[in-house]
Design goal:
This protein is mainly alpha-helical. 83% of the residues lie in helices and 0% in strands. The protein is built from four helices and no strands. Helix 3 runs antiparallel to helix 4. The chain is elongated and about 95 Å long. The protein starts with a helix and ends in a 5-residue tail after the last helix.
Length: 138
């Protein structure tokens, strides 16, 4: 291939790339407008209802998962629960972080408090359960 052919193909590729970049920018703008329109139409009770539905389903799933655990796995399950509670503490700290006093700050404080009680209580219960399996010294 000679230099003129390569330059011509490079020019065509550059034109195509410019055209694709314009189309990508147009699609990005349209998708942003679509997201804004959908978020405005979903504002209000439908958002609460969908989040409440997810919460209720999570409660049912959690109940059935925990009750189907065999007794031999209760100690590891307690350890995992403590780990999950530590993640809840991080989320509660993020919620309690805003400077203004509002509902999210109060709920974040309660989340941190209850998760802390859950973690420390879980460690105490786990320690007592493991102590039951130790051999008693005479």
């Amino acid at each position: 291939m000679d230099a003129a052919t390569i330059a011509e193909q490079a020019s065509k590729l550059a034109t195509s790339a410019t055209k694709l970049a314009g189309e990508a920018a147009n699609l990005a703008q349209q998708s942003t407008e679509l997201v804004v329109t959908q978020s405005q139409s979903m504002a209000g009770d439908s958002t609460f209802l969908s989040l409440f539905t997810i919460f209720v389903l999570a409660c049912f799933i959690g109940y059935f998962v925990v009750w189907s655990v065999t007794p031999a796995l209760h100690s590891p399950l307690m350890g995992v629960t403590n780990a999950i509670s530590s993640v809840i503490i991080v989320g509660g700290l993020v919620a309690a972080g805003p400077t203004e006093m509002d509902f999210s700050k109060v709920m974040g404080f309660f989340a941190v408090t209850l998760a802390s009680v859950n973690i420390f209580g879980g460690f105490i219960v786990t320690q007592r359960m493991l102590a039951m399996f130790k051999k008693k010294k005479k």
